[in-house]
Structure prediction request, 458 residues.
Amino acid sequence: MTEKKKMRRREFLKATGLAGLTLPAIKIVSRANNTEFLSSREQYGSFLVKRNSKGDPVYKVDTSKYKRFVEKDTMFSRSHWDQKTMDMEKQYQGTELQRIKNKDPGYSLLDYSFNHASWTGDNNSFYKWTSSRSRPGKALYDLPAWKPDDLPPREVTNIIKKAALFYGASMVGVAKLDERWVYLKAFYRRQERKDQQGPVEADIFIKDADEPVKLSENNQVIIPKSCKYVIAMVLEMDIDASEAAPTCIAAAATGNGYSRMAVTAGTLAQFIRGLGYMALPQGNDTSLSIPIAVDAGLGELGRNGLLITPKFGSRFRICKVFTDMPLIPDGPISFGVTEFCEICGKCAKYCPSGSIMEGPRTYERRIFSNNPGVYKWPIDPFKCYQYWQENGTDCNTCIYVCPYNKPESWLHDAARNLIGFKSSSLNKIILELDNACGYGEEKNPSQYWKKNNFIHIS
Ligand code: SF4
Ligand code: SF4
Prediction:
């Protein structure tokens, strides 16, 4: 194709809006002391975010209190061994059918079917750590690993990020793996090994090894020490469906996110294996997704106990891939979330179960399903899960009501820029405007099916 024709094609795509995704170009706008001010329309929307140039964390950990967590104590694992949780779940049986028969808006047969189907792709087979098409844990071909001499490491990292976006991520970042975020023990609820009958708990070892082992015959997980990097990805959830919280329609946005993240993490891992490196794709298993995503510069931790990103608030799911491929880490970012959460508290106000804390952060845990030692607002996941049983589906209200969960517009962009100043008086004004606009109030879920424009995932 001649240069002229190439230009015409590019101009045509631009004019028709089909130019597509571009790799997030992150610009350093200015530097002061150890702080870099970054801008990237694709990655941060209209926020100007700060990054410590030394890569310092944006959270505080009390090392005398913090211990690697055991996955068995998470709420979803407790459904498989904790009698109190199992008794609570009995309440759920029958709730679905009753709500369908009641014709409750957002809980009809249409809505339940929509929700259940959205989970179809959440399949364990995508999260394999080795592949039958590759040598165990390693390359697709018996060739040396891909190490282009003519590309600087930053560009190699960008190629991996571009592939992650291509395979379905909405945002991607890289962190050096902090072993504190890896579970001490894994808990495999679903069948991971052919002979596995029921859930299995397995010790996780991070040690010198030539290949990863997801679950050995003697119930061990081996993460090779050479897997020093983690690629964290968020996948946006549909904004219209999320507005129907706490109904099945919003729950479908969650299920759809889980289905897509399995494909994205599994496919990216296979791509990396093809290049001759190890790749260990994960959903919620093996390690804590939120601190990894914070380290990878994707967002900050909010009062709602979730990651808040500049572009989507908490309206996404997270997946990740550990790898030994040498990559350049992004540093953690800050854009005023902690300061805004301190005065906002909308998630705590609207949470139907009282699971979200009011008041200041703490190093303590509220129940054993929390991990103490990180300065944060721990939620009470038992109360949250109890509400899901009463509700007949999962909730999502804390995602929907959060003022960071907004589509881009000039007004929202202006507010986002003001939040960046971390001024409590400005934050109070923004919060009042958010409330005055009726943001966060429950909407009629049936409206979801009446909207014609339903492709809302960018
Ligand atoms: S999902 Fe619902 S019940 Fe659970 S913490 Fe969020 S708002 Fe509260
Ligand atoms: S609703 Fe408010 S307090 Fe809660 S996470 Fe969002 S910004 Fe923070």
Remarks:
- Residues 351-353, 355-356, 379, 384, 387, 395-398 surround iron/sulfur cluster (ligand 1) (CB under 6 Å).
- Residues 58-176+229-280+287-450 form one domain.
- The CA atoms of residues 165 and 171 lie 7 Å apart.
- The mean pLDDT is 88.
